[in-house]
Amino acid sequence: MRIRTVLNDLVPGALGVTDSHDHLFFRSAALPEDQELDDEAGAVAEVRAFADAGGQAIVQWTPHGLNRRADLLPGISTSTGVAIVAATGLHRREHYPDGYVDKIHDELAEIFVRELTTGIGDTQIRAGLIKIAGGFHILDAHAEHVMRAAAEAHHATNAPIAVHHELGSAADAVLDLLVDRLDVHPAAVVLGHLNRFPDHRAHLELARRGAWLAFDGPSRANNATDPRLMDCLAALIDAGYGDSLLLGGDTTTARARASTGEGPGMPYLLTHLRPRITQYFGAEVADNVFRNNPARAFATDWRA
């Protein structure tokens, strides 16, 4: 079992304290130009701030076509000492310029496999996960097509699949498709943004199905979910699912950075949320959420 980072493949125990869902670089047709993450110095500053707070690894969920800047990631990892996992995959259609998705529609599985096994773009930097996205409460045709390509790439490589859920919805539909119909093992699926749909019963049903449950926060666009985060975690921990939880910052805009914007940014996970989790649930749970669970969630027996 290995975790594929932009520098090398790591044994799971070497990953360390992890931000399980974030972005160093991100460009989207849905974002104003001044909010895109395209600043190398800003990315370095944010990673250093995370490292200063005790962070050791970041899983970047920026997928194909959204300015991952893969060529810069090894240098950032080397200079900061923080391991970085890059992603392949495809986001929701509205994040891309008109016509872009249609051009690569029939090549998605091939693109994903190539970026997982050979390299992203002209680099030899390999992705360590497949990031895809569901629709709002349902899986539209685009989401289902991308998920089928992701499942094909997963079966070819064993890569984990991380899923953006629009406002936290349709996670059950994702498992219905990926696990029940496309034979992806639930332990290879990370369900993201569940804090944006703070339904404890729904979360427990997802946990029973064996997938990883990722809570991202705080997000500037979803402030109303912040006070509910600890209650969501408590319901799962009390039910015995503390070993299924992941936490990430999901910094997607320049404004959300701690180092160059208004924050709270990546360090907040460790300076504020980890102490609260330790206080409420104990040091063992906190160590699982930030260290042990990511080491298991993003490790796989790579086929290439």
From TrEMBL:
Pfam families: PTE. Keywords: Hydrolase, Metal-binding. Belongs to the metallo-dependent hydrolases superfamily. Phosphotriesterase family. SUPFAM superfamilies: Metallo-dependent hydrolases. Its cofactor is a divalent metal cation. Zn(2+) 2 binds at K131, H164, H193. This is Phosphotriesterase-related protein. Zn(2+) 1 binds at H21, H23, K131, D250. One of its GO terms (molecular function) is hydrolase activity. Binds 2 divalent metal cations per subunit. The modification N6-carboxylysine is found at K131. The keyword DNA repair does not apply.
